[in-house]
Rab-GTPase-TBC domain-containing protein (Lentinula aciculospora), 402 residues
Amino acid sequence: MDFELVRPNFPFPSCRSSEDSTSPGLGRRSESRATEGAQIHLRAESPAYSVSSGISGTSRITTGVSSDSAAFRSKASSKASNSEASMDAHRQREQKWMSLISTVPPEQARKNKKVRKLLGEGVPASVRYLVWSLMTNAKSKGVTGVYSQLIKRVRVVAFADMERDVKRCFGEHPHFQSTEGPLVNLLQAYLTMVPDVQYSTGLTLIAGHTLLLAPEEDAFWIFVSMMDSALRPYFSANSTQMEVDAALFSRALETNDAQVTKKVLVDMGINPAHMCFPWFTTLFVGSLPGDYVNRVWDLFLYEGVPLLIRVGLAILYCCRRAILEAASEDAVLYYLKRPSPTWLPPTPDAFMTLAFSFKVKDDDVRKQRIKMEKQVKKQAQGQGVRLVANGSGISFPRDTYT
């Protein structure tokens, strides 16, 4: 097998759709031997479809028309029952989340087993921003009156770039377009508060997506918390963090797919940072459909950077055949940055099942990330040069992913 998929090491036992679908459980595979043969179905149009691998590319579609009115009524009744059951399940998940949000201290959320279990079952859209606020401990950042003061300060240097990107990226949302709209306000406030962060379009995409679900000031503090916990180094003048995480991604790719690794990193000589930068600095906004992004964020806020690496591997797998047939670096990077929705698994949860199926030891990624950060900084100080994560500038312990 060119592309090895194994039982993941972090169970989400009964993951449901982020929008409360009644699709079967997803997430990491059960420990039961009976589920070893579980399959993930990709659309037939996917470039990964029909590629020899550990994931089945086959699907069955059956159609039929019945003139039997009794059968029709039976089907209608069954659909109504299923719909009612789905609504009941939706309300139950809402109630579980609201109860959990009121009882679990935010600073303990990422270590709480009940939180992990509910994330696996799904996050109703009606409570999603409250869940994100819990996971990021956003309320601990918030200070009454600070946001309103920040948006009134002198416009930041990047203000014109912000306006341009808001119009370009969120043109379908008229309420974002004003120079005093919520998205411009949020970015103005953040860059005023944290002037060492270098503006890029990714900030607009992440902030805008947050605002699609949360009220303005709540969105601001969620955004601040996400930046502080994981993303801020990606927007620094120093590229160390991106180089480290891109190197970790390249090693994960090498472990899971030797053929694509050879084509992309060796034959084409693509810098893995060029693949990771458009993903990690946007949290996949623009690369994945909105409902897929929501599901990625649900789990990213619990798992951290290892989840970004898994999602990157999943996107690469979905584009696999197109990448192997590509003749240029530009074509490869285009496919990875903007994969066709028809290439993806049919639901957000099926996509996350794929992401959790790759051979990646999340705890080892976290540990190696810390060690490599120190190593790169030390090397950069000693050599006086900027290191590039090209797979050779950073040494890895050989057992990192094995």
Q: What stands out?
A: The first helix runs from residue 69 to 103. Residues 1-40, 49-67, 385-402 have pLDDT under 50 and may be disordered.
